[in-house]
Design a protein that fits this description.
six-stranded parallel β-sheet; Rossmann fold; three-stranded parallel β-sheet; 285 residues
Length: 285
């Protein structure tokens, strides 16, 4: 029997519609329009697509969107200067610097100077620390989207064994933090490139989250029958987008699975809109 397909597109549309209504109410009550600024440095094709999708989603939700497109030769000093201006601008509620950045710019140095109140990606150390303590200001967009998709097919995650493939600052680590929060209460194992006997661990997972960045890495023999499989990977193979999971084979074993595209990706943008609204609320109250 093949797995239930978890439809991220449909779920994200519901969340975006809800956010749009909340934005309209907020604007009516305060006269303030939430404003998200995205900074894109260089000509990375995938980043350009993401930014365009974010802009469209903002406009549809009633959120003001501004994009700063900078050349690939932009210096770190110039980017820091722009962020300082955006931090000081009271009309700007959210700041997102699209990753990856060109080699001459140190990513962490940039993420560290974005105002924590405007850090809608939740990458600033202060916001990461709040998440660790279980009192998050903003939920990191992709992990939050993963959790929402899991809860669609498994409303009670308490006590489930969740295995995360990958320990990145963007997905792997914050995903683990979300899953162990009180009220979610999963048991979490994080695997990475140095993990031994990987398949023996992944095959114990009630919930398997693949965020390792390798096309079709997760094969059917690595998956527990009936498991929920969340595929965060986006890889281009022979001109097609594929995930970190061998979808055709794993969908015959899993109980539920996200497709690529149309799974986690749309949820990331939907949660970004929620964070932009939350940032505006925080700075207006």
């Amino acid at each position: 029997m093949s797995a239930t397909i978890i439809d991220g597109k449909a779920t994200s549309l519901k969340l975006r519609e809800s956010t749009g209504k909340q934005v309209a109410e907020f604007v009516e009550q305060t006269g303030v329009t939430p404003h998200l600024v995205v900074v894109l440095v260089g000509e990375d094709a995938a980043s350009a697509v993401y930014v365009r999708n974010k802009e469209r989603a903002c406009l549809a939700a009633g959120i003001k969107s501004t994009i700063h497109r900078l050349s690939a030769e932009t210096s770190q000093a110039d980017l820091l200067k722009l962020i300082a201006q955006l931090n000081a601008n009271q009309d700007v509620h959210g700041i997102l610097v699209q990753l990856p950045l060109p080699q001459q710019i140190e990513e962490q140095a940039i993420l560290d100077v974005i105002s924590p109140l405007k850090d809608v990606d939740a990458f600033h150390p202060e916001n990461v620390g709040l998440l660790v303590q279980g009192r998050a200001r903003f939920l990191p967009c992709t992990p939050a989207g993963c959790l929402q998709l899991i809860e669609q097919v498994c409303p009670d995650i308490s006590g489930k064994h969740a295995v995360i493939l990958g320990r990145s600052e963007i997905v792997g680590k914050p995903m683990g933090l979300l899953l162990i929060q009180r009220g979610v209460d999963a048991t979490v194992t994080t695997c990475h490139s140095r993990t031994k006997d990987l398949a023996s661990i992944t095959s114990q997972a009630d919930i398997l989250i693949a965020a390792i960045g390798k096309a079709n890495f997760v094969t059917a023999d690595m998956v527990k029958p009936g498991a929920i499989v969340i595929d965060v990977g986006i890889n281009r193979v022979d001109g097609k987008l594929v995930g970190d999971v061998d979808f055709a084979a794993v969908s015959q074993i899993a109980g539920a699975i996200t497709p690529v595209p149309g799974g986690v990706g749309p949820m990331t943008i939907a949660n970004l809109l929620q964070n932009a609204l939350l940032a505006a609320r925080t700075q207006t109250s």
